[in-house]
Design goal:
The structure holds two protein chains of two kinds. By secondary structure, chain A is an all-alpha fold. Chain A contains 21 helices and no strands. In chain A, helix 2 runs parallel beside helix 6, helix 17 runs antiparallel to helix 18 and helix 20 packs antiparallel against helix 21. The longest helix of chain A is centred in the last third of the chain and has 39 residues. Chain A is globular. About 1% of the residues of chain A have low confidence. By secondary structure, chain B is an alpha/beta fold. The model of chain B has no long low-confidence stretch (mean pLDDT 92). Chain B is built from eight helices and ten strands. At the A-B interface, helix 7 and helix 8 of A face strand 6 of B.
């Protein structure tokens, strides 16, 4: 069903988008490379430093929390785990607004420390990544065979010995992967540093690119920053991505392994303190978003207009992303040559290596001399969002298509089933679930996107995240809270839908 | 030696109730359809599951409130009997002391047990480098150093081929005679029970439906549901 033509169009599309972004950077960036102050090394160093510290903190806090949650069964445990999935489901800017609401100057914990600068960045990253790390570690811990704990009970292991002989070996093999994933996320979440960072002391590459392009109008500087971002991210993905790939997020199982360790009073007190601490990190910002948002939703023109824009951009870019992903995954699944197969995979994962800011910088440099970009900015945002979503489309789609190809290709060709008939009778019914999941993921990526929209957005092109950013910039925090709640509810509903969908077993 | 009196347990929708008496030094096979409650029966005796009613006693002592490690029981599972990252010797040594501080005499006991099960040459290997049969020998060696009077086997040899299974069953039988162990063995292979057990308990729908001497169990005169199960 996939003609050579569609494949060619899809590949050419991605390659030209990448090339259009990449080539002008090389041109401009290398021209600049030799007269540059210490700004660039400082930004690179800070990017890595904040990611390293955030990862360390997230993992160190998550470890005892995961162990305690694996050991304990208590009322509200399932609900707590659901809440732990909220931070990453929320668009970054919504969560950050919540954090500012709690720890900012006017919040209940205001004045404890300055929320701007490194402290705020670390706090936000721990808020996002600690619950993720807990869930990933818990997945590993729950995969420990029940026999191990039975054996431990029979041999009278202490809590420490259970950790040493059972839990640690199980976690250790996954820890590099979890840390790598978090490290990548910490270099990638643009909104955190954009809002909580500030000044040259606390800025990351991606934010510096935005500042050079939109605030300083210095495409040359943006180009070299983008090149540095490309090299850093490329190296990180090559190294850390290898480890991160092994990590799988599996929903927590309901059938739990009985445990016999941790029966002492001290152990119970320690575990409850650890769990309470984690709750105190995760819950207040979420509550803040809900509570300060509820009274502040003003159904004015700007909110409705931004909602409509967000939905339009989200649906269009998701459709584009699905179209590209489907064609490429179908080809890759049938491709006997491993080289071409990995080339296609790489094209789909391009946006992981090639951060959106890098691509956008190149487009900006190429297109801005050609006249007013705001006329077609919406297309740029849609295309960029589609490319950003492609990895998330790829991951449910590719395995499903590979499976379907192996099962059905021979049967279909023996029956002479092809073209639209095959699409209708075989591919659509079989791929309904992964396609739906991929589409939802793509919409979510686009709904939460702040990098493409801040780079190309204008007064006439404002999505929900961009509106929040503006309102925060104008110190209209109440309006921002209202908008954030609307966006948060949208994303959360979509994520819940996606989770339900991926967990339902009605279809084989 | 082992006595279950009306020991009740609920697993999801299934209500179980077990009555069984096993004499010291006996080897009893436990046979029955999947999901009938065979493994639960062993878990109740080992203390991994707790009965909601009735009474379980071992060697005349009521086991209510006795933790798994305090019971005079060793258990060998079908799988996951050893820690993959620890070498064979350490896996067995855990049976003596989980903090692994062994005196020379205890270390000798570990070596003896390894020799008894034929793993002397594999002491320093990791379980992953061993075959399925050899891995189960680790668990048998650990049961030897623990030296408990009751041995529970939960389909320990199901994954092995017929010849190897026969070897393992011989080993179990020898050890049972040497140590005068009381053994309960859950198995899916009736011929395994026929080969080793003196009596066989037939478990069905969460109850022990029949306990018969092995010969009668396989005789044409056996109760209808047993013959039906054996015919497959």
């Amino acid at each position: 069903m996939f003609g050579k033509l569609t494949l060619a169009i899809a590949l050419v599309f991605i390659l030209s988008a990448v090339a259009l972004g990449f080539l002008p950077l090389l041109w401009l960036g290398f021209g600049q490379a030799f007269h540059f102050d210490d700004y660039l090394p400082r930004v690179v160093a800070f990017t890595l430093k904040q990611a390293f510290l955030s990862t360390l903190l997230s993992v160190v806090i998550a470890l005892p929390v995961a162990l305690a949650l694996a050991r304990r069964q208590f009322f509200g445990r399932e609900a707590l785990l659901k809440i732990f999935s909220v931070p990453l489901a929320l668009p970054a800017i919504v969560a950050i607004l919540g954090i500012v609401g709690v720890y900012g100057n006017s919040g209940p914990f205001g004045g404890l420390f300055s929320i701007y600068g490194l402290t705020g960045i670390l706090l936000a990253h721990v808020f996002f990544n600690m619950p993720l790390a807990v869930r990933l570690m818990l997945t590993r811990l729950e995969a420990i065979p029940a026999e191990n704990f039975r054996l431990a009970a029979q041999l009278n292991f202490t809590t420490g010995q259970v950790f040493r002989f059972i839990e640690w070996p199980q976690l250790a093999s996954a820890l590099t992967g979890i840390a790598s994933l978090i490290f990548l996320l910490c270099t990638a979440i643009f909104a955190v540093v954009l809002i909580l960072g500030g000044g040259p002391q606390a800025t990351t590459l991606e934010v510096a690119i935005y500042q050079s392009l939109r605030l300083d109008f210095d495409p040359a500087r943006a180009s070299i920053l983008a090149l540095a971002q490309l090299v850093t991210c490329g190296l990180l993905v090559l190294v850390a991505g290898q480890f991160a790939r092994e990590i799988q997020v599996v929903p927590p199982t309901l059938a739990r392994t009985r445990r016999w360790d941790g029966k002492s009073g001290l152990s119970k007190i320690m575990d409850s303190m650890v769990i309470t601490f984690a709750i105190l990190i995760v819950v207040p910002p979420i509550l803040s978003v809900i509570l300060s948002g509820i009274g502040s939703i003003r159904l004015g023109g700007s909110l409705l207009w931004a909602t409509a824009t967000s939905l339009l951009v989200g649906l269009t870019s998701a459709s584009l992303s699905i179209a590209l992903g489907w064609v490429l995954a179908g080809t890759a699944a049938r491709q006997p040559h491993t080289l071409l197969k990995s080339a296609i995979t790489l094209a789909c994962l391009a946006s992981l290596i090639m951060p959106p800011a890098v691509l956008a910088t190149g487009w900006f440099v190429t297109l801005s001399p050609l006249g007013d970009m705001s006329r077609y900015a919406i297309f740029l945002v849609v295309i960029l969002n589609a490319l950003m979503a492609l990895p998330f489309v790829w991951s449910p789609l590719y395995p499903a298509i590979t499976d379907s190809v192996q099962r059905h290709d021979r049967l279909c060709s023996s029956l002479g089933l092809g073209g639209l008939a095959r699409l209708r009778l075989v591919d659509l019914p079989v791929l309904r679930k992964p396609l739906g999941l991929a589409f939802l993921m793509a919409v979510i990526v686009s709904l939460g996107d702040l990098s493409a929209i801040t780079l190309f957005g204008s007064d006439r092109l404002v999505t929900l995240p961009a509106l929040i950013f503006r309102q925060m910039g104008n110190y209209r925090m109440n309006d921002a809270a209202g908008t954030a709640l609307v966006l948060g509810v949208f994303c959360f509903a979509l994520i819940t839908l996606a989770q339900r969908w991926s967990q339902s077993h009605d279809q084989a | 030696m082992i006595k279950l009196e009306n020991a009740g347990f609920r697993y999801e929708d299934m209500v179980m109730n077990f009555d069984l008496e096993v004499a010291k030094g006996e080897l009893v096979g436990i046979i029955g359809p999947s999901g009938a409650g065979k493994s639960t029966l062993l878990a109740l005796i080992a203390g991994f599951d707790l009965p909601v009613s009735g009474r379980i006693s071992i060697a005349g002592v009521d086991m209510a409130g006795v933790a798994p490690d305090q019971r005079p029981v060793s258990m060998i599972f079908q799988d996951h009997n050893s820690f993959a990252h620890l070498d064979v010797r350490t896996n067995v040594a855990l049976g003596i002391s989980p903090d692994l501080k062994l005196d020379p005499q205890q270390r000798e006991r570990v070596d003896e047990a390894l020799a008894r099960v034929g793993l002397s040459d594999f002491k320093a290997r990791k379980p992953t480098e061993l075959s399925g049969g050899e891995r189960q020998r680790i668990a048998i060696a650990r049961a030897l150093v623990r030296d408990k009077p009751v041995l529970l086997l939960d389909e320990p040899f199901t994954a092995l081929g017929p010849a190897l299974r026969r070897d393992m069953l011989d080993l179990i039988r020898e050890i049972q005679k040497e140590r005068k162990l009381t053994v309960l063995m859950v198995t899916h292979q009736p011929e395994d029970a026929k080969y080793t057990a003196s009596r066989i308990a037939f478990v069905q729908n969460g109850r022990i439906a029949h306990v018969l001497p092995t010969k009668q169990f396989f005789a044409p005169s056996a109760p209808a549901e047993i013959s039906a199960y054996l015919r497959g």
